[in-house]
Amino acid sequence: MVKSAPAVIIPRMSEESGTGQAPFQTKYLLLIVAVVLAPVVFSWLTSSPAKSDVDFDLSVNAGKTHYEAGEGQKSIDAFTRALKSKPTETDLLLNLANAHRLANQPLEVIKYATEALDIDNNLAAGHFLIGCAHLRLDQVTEAIKALQQAYDIDNTVGAVGYLLGKAQLAAGNAEVAALLLEEVAAFETDHLGAAYALSQALTALGRTDEAKDALEQHEQLIAGKKMPDQPGHWEICTYTEVRIPFKLAQPDASGIAVTFVDDTVRAFAGKANKFSGPFGVIDFNHDGNNSLFVRTRTNTFQTLLNTNAVFTPLGLGFPAIDGARYSRCLVGDLNNDRFDDVLMLSNLGSHAFRFATNGLARDLSKFSKLASLKAIDGVIADIDFTGKLDLLAIQPGDAGLKVFRNLGSVYFKDITKTSGIPTQITGALKLVMDDWNNDDMLDLFIQRKNEPPMFMQKNRGEAHSPTNTLPALPTAGALTTGDLNNDLRVDLVCLANGKLEVTFNGLEEKQTITLPKPSATAINLIDYDNDGWLDLFAIGDGVQAFRNQGTGGFTDVTAALGLDSITDQVTQLVSADIDRDGDSDLLLAHATGLKYLRNDGGNANHQLKIRLYGNRSNASGIGIQVETVTTGLRLKRTVHSLPIEIGIGKNKLLHSLNARWFDLSLFNLDVQVKPGETVTLTELILPTGSCPYLYAWDGNKYRFVTDLLGASPLGLPVAEGVYIDANPDEIVWIGDETNFQPIDGNYQLQLTEELREILYLDEAKLLAVDVPIGTEVHPTTKLRQRGPYPPAGLTALAKRKPLRQAKLSDGLDVTAALLATDEQWVSPVELRKPQLRGLAKPYSIECDFGPLNADAPLALAMTGWLHFGGGMANIAASHHEDLPFPFPSLEAQVANGTWQKIDVTVGAPVGKTKTIVVDLEGKLPSGAKRLRLSMAFEIHWNRIALFEKTSLPSVATMHPTTTDLHWHGYGAIEDLPSHLPLTPIHDQTVDSPNWRITPSGWVTRYGDVDELVAVKDNRLALIAAGDELTLDFEASKLPSQRPHTSRQFFLFISGWDKDADFHVTNGWTVEPLPWHGMDAQRYGREPRPKIDDGWIKKYNTRWVGPRPLNKPNKVTIIK
Fold first, then answer.
1. What per-residue confidence (pLDDT) applies to 689?
2. Maximum alpha-carbon separation in the chain
3. Count of C-beta atoms within a 10 Å radius of residue 335
4. pTM score, two decimals?
5. Are 965 and 1006 in contact (CB under 8 A)?
6. Strand runs (DSSP E) across 712-756, as ranges?
7. Mind giving me the DSSP string for 467-520?
8. What is the 3-state secondary structure (H, E, C) of 37-60?
């Protein structure tokens, strides 16, 4: 039993205690100042017009001077003054947190550091300061969480490792503490506290000789010096230095000369009065020509083709409803066919139009089930996270909201009663969806009659629900959202009492703009001069425009733009570059018809045009956020409508461009913006969740073998409320003596978690079988529809029957491709859309092995791989009631030519390439001569072979001799054809993933986990994203290989895996922990039984999540 030595908690400081901010030098190898620069590059200012930049600079400099002089309260006062001017500046928030640290006010430290992390979670300084504050409050557990994240971002900062080691020691985790403190002592040889703390940890572990050596080292270091007695000394590092905020470039005060010229007569050939709103902009050929879908004065709907900024009718018109008041035209790809479609809403009924190439449209109103929908407003968005655009609408007459699920093919289902969204909202007038709290989920704003707007927040795993997290809002006649101060937060604009009230997200102070014409009815945000700042437009009695001047507020430019000539009622305003000259023109629904106002001069600045191609997400990218960084400017725009046009000032080169898809963020670096060109951002179908990876040493490198535990997901739904029955036991083939060879006397395997997941590993052991020539041995495990599952085992096959012919259901002869495990594969005839990834349109393979002896112990061995769809695709598929059951089935053709279904569980390969066995003994009908395999999964087959079962040779079993859990990173993927499985490369890794959320909680500390994986006993190694577990098996312990055999190696593994997919139950947390015998359908709700959980406190001492961290610096001790 290990005795625990007394652990010293850092004492509280008195109010007078200082830190002595002397320069602090670390001596780590590979120390890079990027950690200091990163927050500067990614911090951006917001401003209140009442504060000048001069006052701001004076306050920052005063705060720095007082801070470095150890004057805590004075530095707090100065930084507080600066923060009032720029409240969401992360550098200022960290400076103020440090000033409160100097004054020993830990609660305030936590407050301001947390605010900084809410803006940028990758600020190591924020995590570090929170950890320091919790240590001062004797809150060791919370301190470990925060310090661990700072350590994970950069483990070369000595103060982080030292304080994390002290905290782990105080928590009783002496083993983890010793590793951390040993690292600090090794790389920072003059650290006055590391060796002493290390001696305490080693004493607690009973390693007295090593503890004595460490104490002697400490005494040598401290000789002639005074041991610091204030906690502030141990905190001093790069994270406690004052930061000088980056200055966001403000709009030029005078701006560029822009005029909106009324070019209506030319654009509509004198027929503008024949058209009215609502209308939509649609680029149906994706060639940059923004055409229109409009309502005519003869009560029809018409497509107007744009040719050189002249609109002409295209195709036949579609009838509208007599007497209806049409209120909204919504444009987006409703069936994910890469062509945008149109919904038209009215108080008497609605319409759906499906577009194809060249603008040809079909009226699918009745088919869509929306013809009877009476609505006064609506939005399209992926409400249920299935990659399709759903519809949320407001009914007239105070009848509340309606929720329609998009089932694909422009077909909608009313799910109002089951959506979970509160729909009995009285007085609802308008809907806006945007991400208010920066969690990548669209929240809902509802404008209401005679009441302030209602805010419904979307939380992970929950439906939209009302909250009171917004500041007090006025009763609004209109509202809109967008980032008006370029701080990467969505702001809210309300029209109330003849004024525009701007609520800046995260700021207490609002801005109010008095409208010269108070009878406005709607608001638009349009960057008319391409300077990168969203300007305000109000419509109603004409058009009123206000230029965004950043810290200078908003200036009325209505007359300067020539918009004061627009009189009478305007009911709709849309911006789009109609004449393709690089600036956004205006289209108005006016009392006299439609108007086209050409933007002259806006293209003196540059405009970024973007087209989004969603694959997992909806194809149009509606609801996606786009971010770009360029010189002096960083922008974020939510895609509410099409086209996507973003001003970028004088910049021609974007340092980065990023579409924040629901699953991934992929940064495009150094993007050239060229006039007339559209940048296409395609959502790549990269793996985010699937399974852990297995690599084996082949004598030269770690060869990728396959993935693991694909049949054992936790909380993964196949439909709403229905989950996969996890099968935790699996056996996979590793290789033979030619491609699995010992290294340093050990057979070595690497298990990696390179996706957005947590691996719960209970047992791992090596199996070795000496197989005679002509015999094959394969695992019996495979993906089955449901439990209960048979035990995992091995089966031996011999007497292979030659495949005479194989034919795909489309008539293609695939015999040669299925004869051997080689480079030839047979793929499905046609796949489903990307949003239904993992599924194919039904296909089959007929196999002729000659006459089949129904009395023989026959078995099929089929090698292939299955493309996993994941929770998002599973739920999307469950909404298509017409989709066939995807699992493979097997039929036999009998003598009369008919096909009879064979009563066997065929199953499917569990993920990447594996061989499954189908036992046909006693199952074939008499006279069977052919077999037909049918399925609707995306399975790619490499070999289909027929054998007879034979006796299994003896199996040698070995548990790992040693294990080591450590950081690995995220592997690059081989560039392979799409019919081959995604194959990671072990020695090509990065430390930062593409996704933005990871399961959060306590996981297994790094080091050996021998006892956790030695036996199936519910004691689990919890392996987080980016981790790797090395399994060594001593080669000499295996029996000698039998002559005339091939030694085949297998891995038995028992455990579970959980993905952070939106639809996975508790996918965003490490807990609840699984156990053998649990009810998969009640995961997260079933109480944990009374089992020995003492291992949890011993091993689960490392905190991860909830956001993945960028890791600019990593250092590894080589022992």
1. 65
2. 101
3. 19
4. 0.87
5. yes
6. 717-719, 722-723, 729-736, 746-752
7. ---SPP----SEEEEE-SSSSSS-EEEEEETTEEEEE-TT-S--EEEE-SSTT-
8. HHHHHCCCCCCCCCCCHHHHHHHH
